[in-house]
Write a structure and sequence with these properties.
This protein has 319 residues and is mainly beta. It is built from 3 helices and 23 strands. The N and C termini lie far apart (44 Å).
């Protein structure tokens, strides 16, 4: 399988398919212990071009890492305790939440955030962009198991373009005769210096559902800083956001289209301890999720015969 993938889609000096390899470009002392070298049978696409490095697990089309060559540490965070395992999501990176976000509306036994992040995807295209970035497109593989949870005829594609910037395009095509409604998110974890020292701007004045201690509708005033567990779904906004990180001397710019929700999440110490795979004891302090989404008030109807695409682009500015 790997040899066939490399023959059809590999790009010499840029893109290689391997089994459970460590993340290229990640310093050895920050790589997850044990998980990425285990014999899980999962395949990873490794990108290493002149502009940057990235890695993506074909299960879940799960981007695990992205680091421009201009940066000393990754921009997309992967837990030190992350594990690759069949049928399991990976802690960190950019999980694909689809075709619903959060709990399923009616079926408590269905997985939270949908099934896309834990099932196989297949490579359908690869290439090199004019600026030297590497492009890779994956398509979700449907099965009897997924059809029980999602009986609609459709294609779901994720295109990743990795270089000095990172662009992700999540496209849902309704190939059936009836409309359907989806929730979705690119649940991206960002590497930061310390959660108590960063702030997020761009959402001033936006309404949000505060999921901590209940579900209350509030309005953002000014920038967002963090002193405890935060779980907010900002609605009706296509605004760009910026993560200001003075400790790592950089700003992470997040621009999007086809998305009207933004989720901002940090578990803080108590919840992180219960989760157990965030890089104990303090890995949670080094990550922040700012997710481009369509959730709650902003679910998307995909009309029969049409395509909906959510696009997000990340750019880093040194300060």
């Amino acid at each position: 399988m790997i040899s066939a993938l490399n023959m059809q889609f590999g790009i010499k000096g840029q893109l290689e398919f391997v089994e459970d390899a460590p993340v290229k470009g990640t310093p050895p002392d920050t790589r997850p212990a044990g998980g990425l070298g285990a014999a899980s049978g999962l395949v990873v696409a490794e990108i290493n071009n002149a502009q940057g490095c990235a890695s993506l697990c074909l299960q879940g089309a799960h981007l695990m890492n992205w680091q421009p060559k201009s940066q000393a540490v990754p921009v997309v965070w992967l837990s030190r305790d992350a594990r690759l395992a069949a049928g399991k999501s990976i802690r960190g990176g950019a999980p694909v939440c689809w075709p619903w976000f959060g709990a399923h509306a009616t079926e408590s036994g269905f997985p939270g955030h949908g099934f896309a992040r834990t099932v196989p995807w297949r490579v359908i295209e690869s290439g090199t962009e004019p600026d030297g970035a590497t492009r890779l497109t994956l398509r979700l593989e449907t099965s009897d198991k997924t059809r029980v949870q999602w009986p609609h005829d459709c294609n779901l594609d994720l295109t990743v373009i990795a270089g000095n910037t990172l662009r992700m395009e999540l496209a849902t095509e309704n190939t059936g005769a009836t409309d359907f409604v989806i929730g979705e998110a690119l649940h991206t974890y960002f590497q930061i210096g310390d959660i108590g020292q960063v702030r997020v701007t761009g959402l001033d004045g936006c309404a949000y559902w505060d999921k901590v201690g209940g579900s209350n509708l509030r309005r953002q005033e000014g920038g967002i800083s963090f002193s405890g567990e935060t779980d907010r779904v900002y609605i009706n906004t296509g605004a760009a956001c910026v993560i200001h990180d003075d400790e790592l001397n950089r700003r992470i710019h997040i621009a999007k289209s086809g998305s009207l929700s933004t989720v901002v999440w940090t578990p803080w110490d108590e919840k992180a301890a219960k989760m157990g795979d965030l890089g104990q004891p303090d890995g949670w302090r080094e990550m922040l999720c700012v997710e481009s989404a369509n959730a709650i008030d902003n679910l998307v109807k995909v009309v029969a015969g049409t395509r909906h695409t959510m696009i997000v682009e990340y750019r880093v500015e040194s300060i």
